[in-house]
Each structure stands twice: as C-alpha cells, then as structure tokens.
Design brief:
Strand content: 5-15%
Oligomer: single chain
Distance between the termini: 8 Å
Helix content: 40-55%
Number of helices: 8
Strand order of the largest sheet: 2-3-1-4-5
CATH superfamily: P-loop containing nucleotide triphosphate hydrolases
CATH class: Alpha Beta
Radius of gyration: 17 Å
Bound molecules: ligand Z5A
C-alpha cells in the first residue's frame, strides 16, 4: 500500500436499513485487497463517544432537548475525528464508519427540525474539514426498515419515534444524496443482503484500485 492518505467511507440509512449487516461483508471485501482498515461508529467509537451513545439512546433520558441531542452528537464526532479518524487517515489506513455528520442533518435536522445552517456551522467547527470520500446510503422504505428492526427487542430512545419522524429522516438523507451525487452512492436496501453488498462493493471498487495502484 502507498503512504498516501487513507479513504474515509461512511454508511448511512434509516432504522433497520441493514448497515450492520453490510459492514461485515464490506470489511471483508476491503481487507481482501490488502487494505488496512479501522471500523468505527457514531455516536461512539471512542470512550467518550460510547458514553455519549449511552446517554442519547437511553429511553430514560425522556427530557433530552433537541439542541442538547445535536450538541452531544457533535461532541462524540469531534472526539472521534481527533482521536481516531484523522490519525488513521494520516497513516494511510482506511476508515469505515457506521454513520457520520450526514446522520445529524437527517435525524436532528430533518427529524427534529434543528436548523440546517446551525448543523453546518457545527460540522465546520467539529469536523476540521474531514468529509467522507464515499457515503453509502442504504435507502429503504420506512415500513420495511422498522419491521426489520422490530425483531430486535427493546427499542432505544430514538427508535420509539413516529413513522412521520422516520419519513422526514429518509427524505433528508435522499435530499443530501441528490445534492452531492459525487460523494453519495444510494443503494436500494430493500433487496437481499447479497445484492446490497454487490452494489456497495461496485461503488467502492474505484477507491480500492486507486489505493492499490
Ligand atoms: N443518530 C442521530 O440521531 N444523529 C447522529 O448524528 C448519529 C446517530 C450519528 C444509533 O444509530 C442511533 O443514533 C440511530 C440514529 C442516531 N437511531 N435510530 N433509529 P445506529 O446506526 O447504531 O442504530 P440504528 O440506526 O438503529 O441501526 P440499526 O437499526 O441497527 O440498523 P442497521 O444496522 O442498518 O440494520 P441491521 O442490524 O443490519 O439489520 C436489521 C435487521 O434487518 C436484522 O435482523 C438483519 O438481519 C435484517 N436485515 C438486514 N439487511 C437485510 C436485507 N437486505 N434484507 C432483509 N433483512 C435484512
């Protein structure tokens, strides 16, 4: 592998879209090409981030204000960028991240109605210009995603939101993908896991070739 900067791949999608399922296959595909990879997630990925995750997903945090939720997402992200993402990319290794800043635009912006301009300001400040090279958006109708996720047992603080909330999240993701077609690759995630993985690896192949050459 060359000593150039690594690639940053993020995965996004609504509830039950199949990110966790895809991550395993994607990781195997990338590593099979001899690429050194760090897998992480948001909120989380650092000791602080995992503590934040515990708070924002805790159903007992009923009174958490939308503004506080947004700031906590960016607190986790600021730490992840500095502690994990930036150092890893600088070493020429890849980052595979389950959600990144697009999730805040979709959930806190679209879902909770927080101003997009404010989210953009936070992104500029917290992310130090770090933007994914490729974002795979797993797009699935809300009813299908929720039906898949419902088999998992106790719902977290965000999973208990209404269908209307998740429709707004989905619409926000699709709008972001339409606005940035060179970064986003939208995958029809209502298909089988094998089809979703095949689509994702096709989207990744040019970055793999670039890294290997
Ligand atoms: N959040 C936020 O609000 N703001 C932010 O800035 C960030 C996050 C970063 C945690 O995210 C929550 O934080 C999330 C957004 C919010 N809240 N919600 N809702 P998370 O990514 O850790 O959790 P999640 O969104 O709840 O992910 P998930 O529901 O676990 O979805 P998934 O990983 O995409 O799905 P999965 O576990 O791979 O699959 C779910 C089930 O479907 C499972 O039984 C699979 O076997 C099945 N599955 C998967 N793919 C398929 C296909 N293709 N066909 C059929 N069945 C499938």
């Amino acid at each position: 592998m060359t000593s150039t900067r690594g690639k940053f791949i993020s995965l996004e999608g609504g509830e039950g879209a199949g990110k966790s399922t895809l991550l395993a296959g994607l990781r195997e595909y990338i590593e099979s090409h001899g690429i050194d990879l760090v897998q992480t997630r948001e909120p989380g990925g650092t000791a602080l981030g995992e503590a934040v995750r515990g708070i924002v997903l805790d159903p007992a945090q009923k009174g958490l204000a939308a503004e506080t939720e947004l700031l906590l997402m960016f607190a986790s992200r600021a730490q992840l960028v500095r502690e994990v993402i930036e150092p890893t990319l600088s070493e020429g290794r890849w980052i595979l991240c389950d959600r990144f800043a697009d999730a805040s635009y979709a959930y806190q912006g679209g879902g909770r109605g927080q101003p997009l301009q404010r989210i953009a300001e936070l992104e500029r400040w917290a992310c130090k210009g770090v933007v994914p090279d490729l974002t795979l958006l797993l797009d699935v109708p809300v009813a299908i995603g929720r039906a898949r996720a419902s088999g998992r047992g106790d719902a977290d603080r965000i999973e208990v939101e209404t269908d209307a909330f998740f429709e707004r999240v989905r619409a926000s993701y699709r709008a972001r993908a339409a606005a940035e077609p060179s970064r986003f690759h939208v995958i029809d995630a209502s298909r089988s896991p094998a089809d979703v993985l095949a689509d994702a690896t096709r989207a990744l192949s040019s970055l793999v070739v670039e890294t290997r050459s």
